[in-house]
Amino acid sequence: NMLGTLCTLITALTYVDAAKVLTQTPAVHTVSTGQEVVLNCNIQRPESYYVSWYKQVPGKTQYVLKFYHSESSPSFGTGFSSNRFNSKASSNIDYQFIIKRAEAGDTAVYYSSSLKLHHNLIY
């Protein structure tokens, strides 16, 4: 059809733990194949945190990338590269996960987590 295959991306619900808050938007994002996808994560606290992104489909979770706002490019997990994926930060608390050209296989739930530079995982 004219729209091509649709790709639905679902972000995890907000996680709250002792004032450490990650908020992902939009909750559900549906695009046509070939379109760019941008998922947002606000980490609330302007400290030195990486933001990592994970892709989850039934029975499998994959680490996609991690990014720190002062870096020029993200580091990628196995099977993911800058050919189709990217991450940016519009501030030190607002991060974006970008799929440059969506494919049907990108349909999944996407989670973000925040990791302090000293490797103290806070979710």
TrEMBL record:
<protein>
    <recommendedName>
        <fullName>Immunoglobulin V-set domain-containing protein</fullName>
    </recommendedName>
</protein>
<keyword id="KW-0675">Receptor</keyword>
<dbReference type="InterPro" id="IPR013106">
    <property type="entry name" value="Ig_V-set"/>
</dbReference>
<keyword id="KW-0393">Immunoglobulin domain</keyword>
<keyword id="KW-0472">Membrane</keyword>
<dbReference type="InterPro" id="IPR013783">
    <property type="entry name" value="Ig-like_fold"/>
</dbReference>
<dbReference type="GO" id="GO:0016020">
    <property type="term" value="C:membrane"/>
</dbReference>
<keyword id="KW-1133">Transmembrane helix</keyword>
<feature type="signal peptide">
    <location>
        <begin position="1"/>
        <end position="18"/>
    </location>
</feature>
<dbReference type="InterPro" id="IPR036179">
    <property type="entry name" value="Ig-like_dom_sf"/>
</dbReference>
<keyword id="KW-0732">Signal</keyword>
<dbReference type="InterPro" id="IPR051117">
    <property type="entry name" value="TRG_var/const_region"/>
</dbReference>
<feature type="domain" description="Immunoglobulin V-set">
    <location>
        <begin position="24"/>
        <end position="111"/>
    </location>
</feature>
<dbReference type="Pfam" id="PF07686">
    <property type="entry name" value="V-set"/>
</dbReference>
<keyword id="KW-0812">Transmembrane</keyword>
